[in-house]
Amino acid sequence: MRSLARLLLVPAVGSLFLWMIVPLVMTIYFSLINYNLMQPGDHPWIGLQNYEFFVTDPSFGTAILNTLLLLGSVIAITVVFGVLIAMLVNEPFPGQGIVRVLLISPFFVMPTVNALLWKHMMMNPIYGVLAQLWRAVGLTPVDWLSDLPLFSVIIMVAWQWLPFAILIFITSLQSMNREQLEAARMDGANYFQQFRFLVLPHLGRSISVVVMIEMIFLLSTFAEISTTTGGGPGDASTNITYLIFKQALLGFDVGVASAGALFAVVMANIVAAFLIRLVGKNMER
Amino acid sequence: MDWTSPSGQRVALAIRTAGAWFVALLLFFPILFMVVTSFKTELQAIAVPSVWFFTPTLDNFTHVQERSDYFLYAKNSLITSVLSTVIGLAIAAPAAYSMAFFPTKKTKNLLMWMLSTKMMPAVGALLPIYVMAQTTHLLDTKTALVIVFMLSNLPLMVWMLYSNYKDIPPDILEAARMDGASIAGEFRYVVLPLSMGGLASTGLLCLVLAWNEAFWSLNLTAANAGTLAALIASYSSPEGLFWAKLSAASVLAIAPIVVFGWFSQKQLVQGLTFGAVK
Questions:
Q1: CB contact, 8 Å: A48 with chain B?
Q2: Predicted-complex ipTM score
Q3: Which of A22-26, A42-46, A156-160 is predicted least confidently?
Q4: Taking CB atoms and an 8 Å cutoff, what residues of chain A touch B254?
Q5: B51 and B84, same structural domain?
């Protein structure tokens, strides 16, 4: 029976292994040759030059910084506001069902639509809703995508993932022990103390779930950048994923793009190692 | 103010209700604005200040269908997301079952390895996958998308189903085995019925993810197998402001999955949390 059980693993593990190893081997090979789609002919072996080129690219440092800023800001925003909003809508009130439906909706909006919606209708400096709002209170409208490109992308991505965090935290709050809260209240614990010593520890596990899932998805943010700022102006909103994309499809340089891709893989694995600790600690309870 | 007195409680409820509705409408506003814009003329769409009362028109929607054959893209989205989910579940469920009920020392590592493949940026595999799709003549076909969606969601599926199976008390399986159930019988008559909820929520999530997937559909398809995510991207051309048409196309692209999401949000949460949040 045990060997039969092993056999059941084969399709999943085998296909995933192929899915990982074949592109990986090809990428390693591409990364060691001079392979530019615009230069027909031989692809001579050039060793580590592609890596050198990618790493010394002035955009490289910016891209790493942007990737981490995007990841960190979105996680911080969604966790903090997610907890606050979840607590706000947790107890019954008129229209609770509708409010929940409205709150969760942005999560289902596809990233390309999300990006276009914000780029045009919200953030356009002349016709956009935000510009109208700014003018209404007597401020000069902000040209979001040119002046605050990374921040704009962060807003879009956070808008998409905040509902997800809210939904998870609501689910978690609903399983809280009410008698415990009641008892704390009887003993004179104020709201802040109740939050600090009862609610927050209870949410610990779901917070780590939110952080983990968002890390997986946000590390490779792509659509929100490519449909709005195109990584610019300059490199102001270029993350690692987009930098590789630029090398590969705009620069036609398969070699350098492959070196970059391998770099991204290494980075993903560092994050993964970090996650294993986090998850291992929090999910096993 | 004494918040515990009856009148104090009423005030507190009123404040909470107002706050919750305000936040909800604030977060929903962009979607609402887009839906409203899709019924405007192009001139009304960029009017400043925004118009809220007007005679709605359906011209934008007919234009989208005429210009780019919405139904073809919708069909592609539906087929690729459903097929990739169903095939994925069929592969993931046995693996998760094996890992949950016949664990070895390596199971934990195997699970982490699977998750780490999910963390690899898709762009890293883009060139090789593109080349492979080209050499096998699968470029711009639904088959390629089904395979890619299935594989990129597979780690999540295995994870979710695994944590779901972990919740099944082993005693029940012991009992079935005592009664001489085969591995297939055990799976079919004990595990499957007990984990229908987990299977459903896993499937739902992967359906949503596949429907909204943009990277692969943009890079692997053209006119033939394009999904709705690709259709929308074709409306992002910088020249001119066609907000009303863009809105109509967007509404058409997200409406099916948003409505679907509304109805399945409870199931989705259970799946997404790997059963870690009860």
A1: no
A2: 0.86
A3: A42-46
A4: 108-110, 113
A5: no
Q: How many domains does chain B have?
A: 2
Residue B1 lies in a domain: no
Spell out the residues 6+ positions from residue B217 whose beta carbon is closer than 8 angstroms to its own.
B145, B226, B227, B229, B230
A207 has pLDDT over 80: yes
What pLDDT, on a 0 to 100 scale, did the predictor assign at position B145?
A: 92
Tell me which CATH code domain A32-283 carries: 1.10.3720.10
Residue finishing a domain among B43, B58, B73: B58
| Domain residue spans of chain A | 32-283
Sequence length of chain A is 285
Q: Is the pLDDT of residue A285 over 50?
A: no
If one counts every other C-beta atom within 10 angstroms of the C-beta of residue B252, the result is 21
Type of residue at A245: F
Q: Which of B58, B81, B97 is the last residue of a domain?
A: B58
Q: Provide CB contacts within 8 A for A103, sequence distance 6+.
A: A85, A89, A163, A166, A167, B23, B24, B27, B28
Determine contact: A126 vs chain B, CB below 8 A.
Answer: yes
Give the pLDDT score at A156.
94
Report CA Rg, chain B: 24
Q: Tell me the three state secondary structure of residue A33.
A: strand
Q: Greater confidence, B67 or A151?
A: A151
